[in-house]
Amino acid sequence: MSQQGSCARSLATVHLRRSPEADRALPLLMEHTAVALNPRHGMLAAEQAARPLLRQFARHLAEQEGALYEVRRAFRAKKGKPTKMGNAVRSLVRVADGGRTEALDELSRRARALEATVERDGPHRRAWTHRRNRYFPCVEEILTIGPALTSDKVGPGFAKAWEKGLRGPRQLDFLTAAPQACPPADPPRPDPASTSAGSHHAPASSMPDAPVPCR
Fold it and tell me: In what ranges is there compositional bias, type Pro residues (predicted)?
């Protein structure tokens, strides 16, 4: 089952105020939370929704209790293929609750302590504390703001996959060593005939000999 599907099921169980506005906001609320937890997710583009509905949703979102989430993902390698991902397992932890303003303040405080930058992605705010690598296994970790609608979840085998991902290969591990440069050639020896007394031969050319390929 996908992480986005899991998020949708969690949101569907939350009691919302039964009103036309709340009913219309539910799909956008699900979308907003899914993208907050994983920026690679998202089913709707903002321009596809009507502006009045988005304004209503912004008001509805402001009324929701906010939360700061720690999202960690461990990506396993496909067997024998470090450039291919096998699968991923996730840990989702709510580290702070409160209003959106309080959650944003806590995000900023933690980001400063970790020397991370808070990104602005439309209505979303997140700080990457560990970005994934190009090769597998690897990990990623973000602090992100979202509605306080999801509970803590840890996927099976996460702890082991996380530790393995932290020790995974780095990009430089796959770069071949640069070829060694040829050692400098010995300077050309002068022609004795050209340096003998009274010689009328032209001096040796100052042009260097052609480079000798490395063996």
Answer: 181-191
